Amino acid sequence: MNIRKLPVLCLALAxxxxxxxxxxxxxxxxxxxxxxxxxKPFYAVVVEKTTTSVTLKLQDGRKVTKTLRELEEPxxxxxxxxxxxxxDLLNNAEFSKLTVKEMLELRGYQSFEFDIEGNxxxxxxxVNGKPMRFMVDTGADSSLIHSGSAEEAALEVGPxxxxxxxxxxxxxxxxxxxxxxxxxxxxxxxxxxxxxxLFQKGKMPKDYDxxxxxxxxxxxxxxxxxxxxxMFLKPDNINKPDKPRGSAGAGAAAEVKAEFxxxxxxxxxxxxxALSDKNDKESKALFRFQDGRIAPLEYAKLAEADRSMVExxxxxxxxxxxxxxxxxxxxxxxxxLRNYQSFDYRLSGNHILxxxxxxxxxxxxxxxxxxxxxxxxLGFAQKAGLTIGxxxxxxxxxxGEAPAALAKVPNMKIGDSVIEDREVLVADLFKDxxxxxxxxxxxxxxxxxxxxxxxTVISYKENRMFLRPGISDKPDGGALPKPRExxxxxxx
Length: 492
Description:
Blueprint: E1 32-35, E2 41-49, E3 53-58, E4 63-67, H1 73-81, H2 84-90, H3 100-105, E5 110-113, E6 115-117, E7 120-127, E8 130-136, E9 144-146, H4 147-152, E10 162-166, E11 169-183, E12 186-196, E13 210-212, H5 214-219, E14 223-225, E15 230-233, H6 248-257, E16 261-264, E17 270-279, E18 284-288, E19 294-298, H7 304-312, H8 315-322, H9 324-327, H10 331-336, E20 341-344, E21 346-348, E22 351-358, E23 361-367, E24 375-377, H11 378-383, E25 393-397, E26 400-414, E27 417-427, E28 444-446, H12 448-453, E29 457-459, E30 464-467
Parallel strand pairs: 8-13, 9-12, 23-28, 24-27
Antiparallel strand pairs: 1-2, 2-3, 3-4, 5-15, 6-7, 7-8, 7-11, 9-13, 10-11, 11-12, 14-15, 14-29, 16-17, 17-18, 18-19, 20-30, 21-22, 22-23, 22-26, 24-28, 25-26, 26-27, 29-30
């Protein structure tokens, strides 16, 4: 169909009143807490800065200029990284409603939901073309496949002569070559995995096939968001072909043309245009054609799939996707704009380690999405002066089961997040494996119970963890979940 014959085009000039632009910022700026070097706090917003000073607007409307050296170090760093673009985002009412999913998908991440059962994260995928269930485990240095599942996927499994270690002790594993592993659009090809009996010859229920460990999570620049129950991957990181020389200009041109697409009408006719704006109250969308003409169209005149796309479309998200300033923002900057506290973690092998405090004793936590709950190493719990009950509990993992005890923890702190008066499990975390490289480099497993409670986001690309300190301590979080008869503490 020739789009010029659409009668709706005659409305093209009567647009401003129908499509008011969203306000770029709220009238009231978001005031931030600053502190001077002598410890005096005040609330202000940044107006402008130089390399050595910053102009701030106080809550009473006065403007003051301070040298960076007058501020505490964290505030100096904030000012150095401050930009007008980020400040406009911070004060934009529509941006404040964007979810982590929407922000990261604008940055090229593929997103899919995960299931949480007993605090464990499960996602659906494929191994060698066979559908399988994956448990996502940041505490597993390497990925593993259940020996029975490997056989079901017709994988060639070698001799069981490789020792692996977990909280239950030692188990034997075999090397297997996997033609393909698929999660969403991410395809990992021709990799070696270790196969082992994850469920102790049927003693524990088989509720997944693969432990998707930190090796692949790092390779895929994974982001895990407990708040939204989603995992984000960068599929292009895997098996990525080299770009042909001289392709940058072609790619940029393709990106500009990509905003134009073919739309379908309810009557079956089609046209090519870019969605420019919309007015939900009037149920009208504004389209821009390749020759520069602009015209509105009622939602109802579009085919169902395209009508749904228009209803979900956001001008802010569309504008952000085209802005270079937004494309250069890191996950850290995006989430800190949403009031997450961010701090670096360090890696030991593929393990995520974070420093904290437990009962006023310095502690090193291993961040473990595969651990159902927090587990303290017995020696550390004794050093921290905790009252430890009888070893009449059990935890499960590679190597079988291990005895554990309950202990009351008065306080636990990571960053600004404080968790108080909780019961946790205590066990020998390094049974039969203390001589292995990397064993003994942590005092506790910071498990999925607390990760969920603190709305944790983990970003492998930036080696950062994000918490929402304002939501702890949760009043209903004190109960210790009943142990499941499944691997609560996968291989380390």
